[in-house]
Amino acid sequence: MLRSLKTPVTFALFVAVLAILAFPVTAQVEVDERLPEYKPVQGVSGTVKSVGSDTLNNLMTLWAEKFKEVYPNVQVEIEGKGSSTAPPALIEGASNFGPMSRPMKDAEADEFEKAFGYKPVAVQTAIDMVAVYVHKDNPIAQSGLTLPQVDAIFSSTRKGGYASDINNWGQAGLDGSWGNLPISIYGRNSASGTYGFFKKKALFKGDYKNSVKEQPGSSSVVQGVASDKGGIGYSGIGYKTADVGTVPLAKKQGGEFVPADFDRAADYPLARFLLVYVNKKPGEDLDPLRKEFIKLIFSQQGQEVVVKDGYIPVSYEIAKQTLAAVGVDIDADY
Amino acid sequence: MVWLTGGALAICTFMVFGLLFLVLMRGLSTFWPLPVEQVTTSDGRVFMGEVTRDDDYQPTDNVIAALTGEMRQAADVELASGDGWAHRRLFRTGNYRITQNHFSWVNDWEVDQLEQPEWAMVLERLEWGRFYGFPEAFVKMTLVDRNGMTEEAFRNELRRQANLPAPEGAAMRLVARGTGSVPFELVDPSDAATASSLVGFAEVHEGAEAAWHGFREYHAEVRERREDRRQLEKHDTGRINHRQEQARLKVREIELEIAEAEAKGQDSKVTKLEAERAHAQKEFEEVRVWADREFARIRSEIDAINEENSRYQMLFRTAGEGHREPALTFQRLDDIVRAYPANRLALGEKLALFGSRWKEFLTEEPREANSEGGVFPAIFGTVAMTLIMSIAVVPFGVLAALYLREYAKGGPLTSAVRIAVNNLAGVPSIVFGVFGLGFFCYVVGANIDELLFAAELPNPTFGKGGLLWASLTLALLTLPVVIVATEEAVSAVPNSMREGSYACGASKWQTIKRIVLPRALPGIITGMILAIARGAGEVAPLMLVGAVKLAPELPIDGLFPYIHPERSFMHLGFHIYDVGFQSQNSEAAKPMVYTTTLLLIGIIATLNLATIWLRNRLRRKFAGGQF
């Protein structure tokens, strides 16, 4: 390359390559170019205290690290033991951000309203696909499952309408040596938002089987499935490793099997927003700390972090809408 | 019987050493640099990275049936010779930005070519994890100040500088501001007329050797500036911030006093306080103006360092991930923690790298949601918590045990207390955690907040989990160990000695102090050793009373009052749980789990050894003082 660059023709090529590669066209997932760059403002101080979802745990930590880079004087404390821990912490004032991987239940929002007189605001920070994970050698990752089949695997009530219970991989449509392999089910504990989301969407609000091995974190579900040949489990797409496969899902019998790929998020049956709840009094501005943190989330830098953590960044339109809910104008306030 | 007991001991020893050996091997090997291998599959895919694991498995028929051509043949041969078993390797391919993948499995039958390219480099970066690629060029940009020159004059000046004799082996290029999200473009000096918005010039050192040389020449310097920037970010801003917060709290305190005085109807006091408030308010405003100015200054210093550092970049070519074409990509030296051509390292260089990774692990803060960087805050938190716990539990436990043994009359009550203490040792640790949260944080802490930190409410100071509450909770947890050990030690002191002391006219307390305690001390310290071992390894209760995923602020720092026992802290045990079961890139985090475990075992062993050394010293000291 050393000598070749001395000639003008190849040098032009070199420049072209540079121009292309200086920005990340090579990435599969891209941040919406219309999202603004984050620029620091003055007068931000205090503690970012976040209590809530385990799925969002790493994401919140990464955002906080970015935030600390911009405002080194800010202190950061992050806890992520499950979405159910977010509302009580917000109500008690023990946190200023409540990350949740499911929307608040009515009871939780009412409890909040009882304490403050208004409802909390949900900020839609990123898009997640709850993937159904299987062992990396499991051929079901090439074919797929329908949601009623998933329901018949995970649920004892089968509200999805599948005719019979599925207990081994043969009943799920595999043959050969896989046919007799019993299915071993991994899931999350009930404090998890992913648990609630999966129950609502994939189990049609039915009940989990007693044989589900409940794990304390998303990553432990994936690790459990990775080391169990007959294993199946569910978790956010950000936790995928090389040791598991994701199962393409179809809404119903005969529907199209949609893989959990980033470009298919719109059609994927178990896609969801990752939310961060904040306590915002209607008609009043957020304090600088929370306002700037939320602005950072929806900036180029913040949504890059979403890609880094394995989730899907939000579009300009979603960002604009959700920022408006917390009193930030995406075009004017950056 | 000899066989039975000997067998039991052998099994115990085997299990303990097996565990230690596993942790030691896995923990130590984490930081050893592996060679980088590039594999080309027979259908033209390329993977480059470190081989982290391999396994043997039995591929199912449909997998084999889906294969074609060369691969099918290779697979058939392998399966026939391996009796249905096949072998595959896990490559850590990195380059997550490009592939959305950290690791890839490659079956042996897919492999067409396997090589260790000489110039394959490994980059450990501040963000986005590892990068594997070939160095193509080292670029050092210089941005020239326009200084009021006309476009023409500026171009001439640039061209003049760009035409200055370049350092050996380098080519000079002009740098133009790019369009869209392309920050800079390189332009041939002869094409300068066509390029718009020139901003400076660049030295380009092409070739792997030259690029690597450039990296080594400038990386230390860039790193040093990064260190300066961190100093600015952490210490200087922390100091300013603290002063600002103090000024704000002062105003708030006076406001609270005013409210109190108003409620009591003390008008004269209110007027006096109002004046004070105005004064404090003015001071606060002044501090705020000063702080804003200081922050702006620090900000501009940081920006200057950033700009200076982003002048140094390296151009890399990737090997091509899977089906992708090889890509060229720039890496800023500022983002690189460490880079090395893995296949060219001599043993000495490998050792140096190994050492430097350990150093980073032990002394730095964690990065990237704890999956990279060091664990220093966690080490600090663990040691501080264990020490505070020992300071709290030992005197308390010893006094309680002395009363039980020396003063209390034997009876049903004493027995009941003793049974209760022993039972306390059997209570699950999480119960202590719940108690600590409910009692220390929500009752004691909340009351302290109301009395002393009312100005900071509603943000809790002591009314939440923190180092002090965690230490006290663990002190409660380990109290039975200390009491039981002390009781045993005290009761082992022969009664004849006590009677001898009484016969000389000593009082009860004198006897305890001079005769009983010194002889019981080694036993008491044994209790302390057990308490430390129990306490430092406990995680479950800590999750409730103060251990958190990320808390880089240490409980001791240079800001008044220097010790902050109310702060949340990081703990190695909780860190192991977090990295092992909560991290996004769990495959890469697994080795870190072993390393952190090794470190935790090491720290507990060190604390225990220190206590044993203390015990032996005390033993020697008191041995001479006995009859």
Q: How would you describe what is shown here?
A:
Chain A is α/β, with parallel strands linked by helices. Chain A has helices spanning 8-21, 57-70, 86-92, 106-116, 147-154, 193-201, 218-226, 288-297, 300-308, 316-325; strands at 47-52, 75-80, 98-100, 121-135, 145-146, 184-188, 213-215, 231-236, 244-246, 249-250, 271-278. Chain A folds into two domains: 29-127 and 272-325, Periplasmic binding protein-like II (D-Maltodextrin-Binding Protein, domain 2); 128-271, D-Maltodextrin-Binding Protein, domain 2 (3-Layer(aba) Sandwich). In chain A, helix 2 (57-70) packs antiparallel against helix 9 and helix 3 (86-92) runs parallel beside helix 4. Chain A is elongated and about 65 Å long. With 627 residues, chain B is of the alpha+beta class. In chain B, strands 6, 7, 8, 9, 10, 11, 12 and 13 form an eight-stranded antiparallel beta sheet that branches. In chain B, strand 6 and strand 7 (130-143) form a beta hairpin. The mean pLDDT of chain B is 85. The interface between A and B is large, with 68 and 82 residues.
* CATH evolutionary superfamily of the domain at 378-494 and 520-623 in chain B: MetI-like
Tally of extended strands of chain A?
11
Most extensive chain-chain interface: A-B, 68 and 82 residues
CATH architecture field of the largest domain in chain A: 3-Layer(aba) Sandwich
Q: What value does the average pLDDT of chain B take?
A: 85
Helix content of chain A: 25-40%
Mean pLDDT of chain A: 84
- The CATH topology of the domain at 378-494 and 520-623 in chain B corresponds to MetI-like fold
What is the straight-line distance between the termini of chain A?
Answer: 43 Å
Distance between the termini of chain B: 41 Å
| Percent of residues in β-strands of chain A | 15-25%
Helix and strand string of chain A, N-terminal first? Answer: HEHEHEHEEHEHEHEEEEHHH
In the CATH scheme, the class of the domain at 378-494 and 520-623 in chain B would be Mainly Alpha
CATH fold title of the largest domain in chain A? D-Maltodextrin-Binding Protein, domain 2
What would the principal axes of the Cα set say about the shape of chain B?
flat
Q: Low-confidence spans of chain A: pLDDT under 50, at least 5 residues?
A: 1-27
How many distinct folded domains of chain A?
Answer: 2
